[in-house]
Specification:
A: alpha+beta, D-amino Acid Aminotransferase, Chain A, domain 1, six-stranded antiparallel beta sheet, 16 strands, B: Rossmann fold, two-stranded antiparallel sheet, 4 helices, 19% helix
């Protein structure tokens, strides 16, 4: 919940402070504040900042070794990180593995059911509007994020989920859901930003299903820091297993409008043998590229446009579309 | 005079091309493997012969154009050295942007291998043959010339025996019956002049085309 704006030297969010040092570095400082209900409920808990900084450190290290590009450069002290200054997208990504929180209120369904596959939702970052859900097409249409960037952000978010879920399970924890923020640097590269802690995740004990996250504070269920300490302890005790999920890029190539497509005409006639009359049939190509290498954030958009224009398609006769999975 | 004849993986017309070129007085045509980059600079001109370079994967000529060979060739053309692409060689040169346009699959989606007639339209590099009708073979699947506008620099057009570029004489659906293009020192055509060189091949018209090319190098 932090807006990083270059014109401001220092910005104080609800629980963290960001100080821009120069064009290459900023400081992210964890405070002891805790809030809920878009800031309606507040408290200050001694040691909370350091605890969440520690959680963020160990989880971001795991993500880095799993090939996710993150904004953290180094941890400076108990509550301070040096990070890359980013323009944070005004939308945040939530991944849900088990039903809880706003989705239950929105659709009137009970919490606790595990989803068949992870669900990704996008929300607008705006406390006054109470962080409303936004559809992908609206987010792109309003210019909050480019379509290509959204594809990459979603691919990264799903990889984060896979690696976290796997390791939380090893630690006897259920990763119910979590929120991620991403940002774009001055070169257009995309990095995972913000933090990962009990503030931004729902985590339950696998055996007792006891809540170990900010819901304890939201719902006055006891000592929230005790849950955070349990989280930190459990995750420190296991040996992390990074996951290297390939990034899949699909390239769909179609003949340009008006360009003769003789192959399509042959298929058109064959389809008509089935009694289906078609207006036209156009044959193109589908290319699936998988990447393992991903430790550094790269300018995927620029690189793929280059390889498409100079190799995979002939711009005179074909058009391409890139999908990231 | 040294003429480099390139061989990419899948090239299959290099020997006919070498034999034809070496038939001219004073010409030494050399087979150059596409990775043999250091030999490029020593040549006076180049021919990219026909075939299926890199299996015609993606599009005919699309992989070959990304090789360092073609990058170097681009520099050589800038210094004015002549390059002639035949069939797949023409496809490589259009893919590389050294000649305008693109070669789509044939209109009827069949491989076409037969003698056809072309009329030379170029009055510069091939000016000695201007308006002459030639009988010469083609053998290709992707020879359907396409461009967004009617291009300048047409080398030859498919025609009937009287030189008229009729619809019936167009073997593949090419825009304006275009069979070949020329731009600055780069020329390319779908027909195979090296296959109409010796009497036993059924026509010797291709010899005239290669002769003009060789004489242009001498100039």
């Amino acid at each position: 919940m932090m807006r990083q704006e270059n014109e401001e030297k220092s910005y104080s969010g609800k629980v963290k402070t960001l100080e821009i040092l120069n064009s290459e570095t900023a400081k992210m400082i964890f405070r002891d504040d805790i809030t809920a209900g878009d800031g309606a409920k507040k408290d200050n808990l001694n040691g909370k900042g350091a605890l969440n900084a520690r959680m963020t450190e160990i989880l971001f290290n795991l993500l880095t070794s799993s090939g996710i590009p993150t904004h953290i450069l180094k941890k400076e002290d108990d509550i301070t990180f040096l990070v890359r200054p980013l323009k944070i997208f005004p939308v945040e990504v939530v991944i849900r593995n088990t039903l809880a929180g706003s989705i239950c209120r929105r659709y009137g369904i009970p919490e606790g059911e595990e989803l068949k596959k992870p669900l990704l939702e996008i929300f607008v970052k705006d406390d006054e509007l109470h962080d409303p859900l936004i559809s992908e097409s609206v987010a792109v249409s309003l210019g909050y994020i480019e379509e290509f960037e959204l594809g990459l952000v979603k691919a990264y978010a799903h990889r984060v989920n896979k690696v976290l879920k796997h390791n939380f399970d090893k630690a006897g924890l259920i990763l119910v859901d979590f929120k991620l923020e991403f940002g774009r640097d001055k070169n257009g590269l995309i990095w995972l930003a913000d933090e990962l802690s009990g503030d931004s995740m729902r985590v339950w004990d696998k055996e007792t299903r006891q809540k170990l996250d900010k819901d304890v504070f939201r719902k006055d269920l006891g000592d929230v820091l005790e849950g955070y300490r349990t989280l930190e302890k459990r995750l420190s005790e296991i040996e992390f297993e990074p996951l290297r999920e390939p990034l899949n890029v699909n390239i769909i190539i179609t003949p340009k409008e008006g360009i003769p497509n003789p192959g399509g005409n042959v298929v058109k006639r064959a389809i008509e043998n089935f009694g289906i009359n078609t207006q036209s049939v156009r044959l193109g190509k589908f290319i699936q590229i998988s990447f393992q290498e991903n430790l550094e954030s790269r300018n995927w958009k620029e690189e793929f446009h280059k390889v498409n224009n100079e190799l995979l398609t002939n711009p005179l006769i074909e058009v391409f579309k890139i999908q990231i999975r | 005079m040294e003429i480099g004849v390139f061989r990419f993986p899948g090239t299959n017309n290099e020997h006919e091309t070498l034999r034809a070129l070496n038939n001219f007085e004073g010409v030494s045509a050399n087979l150059i493997e596409y990775k043999d980059l250091q030999r490029i600079n020593d040549q006076d001109a180049f021919v990219i012969p026909g075939g299926f370079s890199f299996g015609d994967i993606l599009r005919a000529g699309a992989i070959a154009k990304t090789t360092e060979t073609v990058q170097l060739l681009r520099d050589e053309t800038l210094s004015g050295k002549l390059v002639f692409g035949i069939c797949n060689g023409f496809q490589i040169l259009t893919e590389a942007g050294l000649l305008p346009g693109a070669l789509l699959p044939n209109r009827h989606t069949r491989f076409v291998s037969k003698f056809i007639n072309i009329k030379i339209s170029d009055d510069k590099l091939f000016g000695d043959l201007f308006n002459q009708v030639m009988r010469i073979p083609i053998a290709h699947f992707e020879g359907n010339y396409w461009n967004t506008t009617r291009p300048d620099g047409v080398l030859a057009r498919y025609s009937d025996i009287d030189g008229r570029d009729t619809e019936d004489s167009n073997p593949n659906g090419s825009l304006d019956n275009i069979a070949g293009m020329v731009k600055n020192s780069v020329a390319g055509m779908m027909p195979h002049p090296e296959r109409a060189f010796f009497k036993h091949q059924g026509s010797t018209d291709g010899r005239k085309i290669l002769k003009v090319f060789v004489e242009a190098i001498k100039c």
